[in-house]
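[09:14] KT: can someone run the structure on this one? pasting the chain below
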Amino acid sequence: MTLDAVGTPSETVARRFFLVDYLPTYGFVLFVLVLGWAGAPARHPVFARAWHTAAGLGVAEVLLISLVVLVATIVLAPFQLALVRLVEGARPRRWGRRRAVERQRRRREAWQRRAEPPSALSPSSPPSALSPSSPPSAVAGPDAAAVQQAGVAEAAWRARFPSADHLTCPTAFGNVLAAMEDTAGRAYGHDAAVTWPRLYLLLDDKVRAAVDQRRNAMDASVRMCATGLLAALVAVAMLTPHGGWWVFLALAPLAVAIAAYQGAVHGALAYAESVHVAYDLCRFNLLTALHLELPADVAADKALNRALSEFWRQNVPLPEGSRGYHHGSTKGPGGGG
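[09:31] RB: done, structure tokens below
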């Protein structure tokens, strides 16, 4: 994916750093320290011992722990994009990837079947309902409800899966982002993979704030998912020597990881929606910043956007003289439906 490579400059660095990077790392370090203070793996864990150790920490020791967490957070922060791609299923290329993709394809087909529109009328509908002059209210209630449900299912299917089968990813999270990259701006001729990094820098403040907020929520869930899974593995390694019920303590961070992954999927859906809205409202800001004349109609808009996408994606030269430069104000129009 390439859409997830865009940063969030309008968001304060401190807020994103704390939510996405620092908080999950702090939770992981604290969890491991508590297990160690309780005695694991050398001794049988006693959490009263952990509480006693924590209560006896001095100021210097607390500052040292905080410094270690801060350094670890700074070192790991640049790997957020790689982590998102890992949860997408882009890496590794093996290790059951084919089986996971086939499972997602079956899920895609199931959602597609749910989106198939039912017959307009049931076989038991009276002949009078077939009259062209009948008002919409004459259609049987269950039929109207089924049509509405199919419409909702279709919208959900298009949001959760890319339209092309070969773009199917091995995870539900990856498929949501693949669907976003496949469809965002496409109605206007944009290839989001190459136009979104440029358009993002020109978004209006309100739109960018919405995009940033949802992107941060998605990234935080991804980081929490990875951190919870890693904490579960560490807990198993530290508690297995003691056997018994202690190993089940690893289920706590594992439950956090599973919940965080579901949150990441829903966060990706919300982020994708905001990207679609950004194209709807701010796409003309890109043309204005490029000093290009705004298109006169929908067809010209699509043709120009396709030409720009091909130029940025494959370095295909723009048609000479197709659109003139406009050297007016460089400030975006503030929207542009």
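[09:33] KT: thanks! The radius of gyration is 26 Å.
[09:34] RB: yep, looked fine to me
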